[in-house]
């Protein structure tokens, strides 16, 4: 049974076709600059050369048409006909309070997704466009929506409520939702396997450290705290996002003449590692500059490591203990220096890294020393596989 996984951004579309009998990736690709000049789709299948389609793609549907033709192409295709696609799983950013698990898409689900769009104006409309386009092109194939927020619907009230007037919650649904749920769920399940324990008996902290970054406290398999909030702006310092700041800074900047829109752009696109270092939002560039003696680059990294560390400390308090800490996503999987810098100050948890194991990259493994009281792990995330698994289990 083959499952197509679709991840639609406002001008991009990522996809993977997986054979779920083996969980093997048959083909994957990325379309970029949809709706703007210079549209391009790069398609690849294991063991074959990449194929690049440089042609106008005015809509996501046009990009989907190209990718579906690529999947069945006699020379570089991987299936004979689109009938070999049994289901489509859609990465969907915001499910609000309506969805605490993945769902098969029907008209009622679409309506709820439209209602959630207000909470994720950059993401949900694009996700909906992808769902509708796939429904048109594959009218008999079931579609499943898998939400970034769903895993965090188990947060208790004291974790998800903001201490604003209660009406802000009832009127506008202002609360913490959290994101990266698909990734936190996937790596926590893998971590339990690696530790040889049941997830129901574990207290885990998952650190998804990429361009966007969030932490999640997972107690007995359930998310009970996470660092992103109503939107993905909250929590840690990120590539271009500021994370938590004193909210009074917003009206202060407005009083200095910035518009609300400008402050919003500043906090989302010009802050974080980019804003502090003045060099780049990419951790590799910033680590390189810091190694070359650039003080602001070093400060940007210090803030990042410090915030991850104090958030880990908070989550140990939230769970009254911790058995395992997981590093995942671009930086978490690859940067041994960042993992070391974060863990260096967690000695109170009895954490000791094994320097040889920690020098590994991108491989699922335990990186703490044998006598470390808390197990520290690197687990490469695989959101596409998680989406495909959920999709399969719902349409089977
Ligand atoms: P997203 O999916 O949020 O765009 P990723 O999970 O792909 O992000 O992570 C991207 C980040 O990971 C980039 O900032 C990149 O610099 C960082 N990264 C990737 N490889 C390394 C590495 N070897 N050392 C340090 N940082 C790395």
UniProtKB/TrEMBL annotation:
Q: In which pathway does it act?
A: Metabolic intermediate biosynthesis; acetyl-CoA biosynthesis; acetyl-CoA from acetate: step 1/2
Q: What is the name attached to this protein's record?
A: Acetate kinase
Cofactor dependence is on: Mg(2+); Mn(2+)
What assembly does the database describe for this protein?
Homodimer.
InterPro entries for this protein: Ac/propionate_kinase, Aliphatic_acid_kin_short-chain, Aliphatic_acid_kinase_CS, ATPase_NBD
Where exactly is the site Transition state stabilizer? 180, 241
Q: Which residues form the active site?
A: 148
What's its top-level EC category?
Answer: transferase
List ligand-binding residues for Mg(2+). Answer: 7, 383
What detail does the entry give on cofactor binding?
Answer: Mg(2+). Can also accept Mn(2+).
Entry keyword annotation includes Transferase: yes
- From what organism does this protein derive? Acetobacterium bakii
**EC number of this enzyme:** 2.7.2.1
């Amino acid at each position: 049974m083959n499952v197509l996984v679709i991840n639609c951004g406002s001008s991009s579309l990522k996809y993977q076709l997986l054979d779920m009998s083996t969980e093997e990736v048959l083909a994957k690709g990325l379309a970029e600059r949809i709706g703007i000049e210079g549209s391009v789709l790069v398609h690849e299948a294991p063991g074959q050369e990449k194929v690049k389609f440089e042609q106008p793609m005015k809509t996501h549907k046009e990009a989907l048409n190209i990718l579906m033709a690529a999947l069945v192409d006699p020379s570089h295709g991987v299936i004979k006909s689109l009938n070999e696609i049994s289901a489509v799983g859609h990465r969907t950013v915001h499910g609000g309070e309506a969805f605490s698990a993945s769902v098969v898409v029907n008209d009622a689900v679409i309506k709820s997704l439209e209602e959630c769009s207000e909470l994720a104006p950059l993401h949900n409309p694009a996700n909906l466009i992808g769902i509708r386009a796939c429904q048109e092109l594959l009218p008999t194939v079931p579609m499943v929506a898998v939400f970034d927020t769903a895993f965090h619907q188990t947060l208790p009230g004291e974790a998800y409520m903001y201490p604003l007037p209660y009406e802000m919650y009832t009127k506008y649904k202002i609360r913490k939702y959290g994101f990266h749920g698909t990734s936190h769920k996937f790596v926590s399940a893998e971590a339990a396997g690696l530790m040889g324990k049941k997830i129901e008996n574990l207290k885990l902290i998952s650190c998804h450290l990429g361009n966007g970054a969030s932490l999640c406290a997972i107690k007995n398999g359930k998310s009970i705290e996470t660092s992103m909030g109503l939107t993905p702006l909250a929590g840690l310092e990120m590539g271009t996002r500021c994370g938590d700041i004193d909210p009074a800074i917003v009206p202060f900047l407005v009083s200095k003449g910035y518009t609300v829109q400008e402050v919003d752009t500043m906090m989302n696109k010009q802050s974080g590692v980019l804003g502090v270092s003045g060099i780049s939002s990419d951790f590799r560039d910033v680590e390189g500059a810091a190694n070359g003696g650039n003080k602001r680059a070093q400060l940007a990294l210090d803030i990042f490591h410090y915030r991850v560390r104090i958030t880990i400390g908070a989550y140990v308090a939230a769970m009254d203990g911790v058995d395992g800490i997981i590093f995942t996503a671009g930086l978490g999987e690859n940067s041994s220096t960042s993992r070391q810098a974060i863990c260096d100050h967690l000695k109170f948890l009895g954490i000791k890294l094994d320097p040889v194991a920690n020098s590994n990259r991108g491989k699922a493994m335990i990186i703490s020393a044998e006598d470390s009281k808390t197990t520290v792990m690197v687990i490469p995330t695989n959101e596409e596989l998680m989406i495909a698994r959920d999709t399969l289990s719902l349409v089977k």
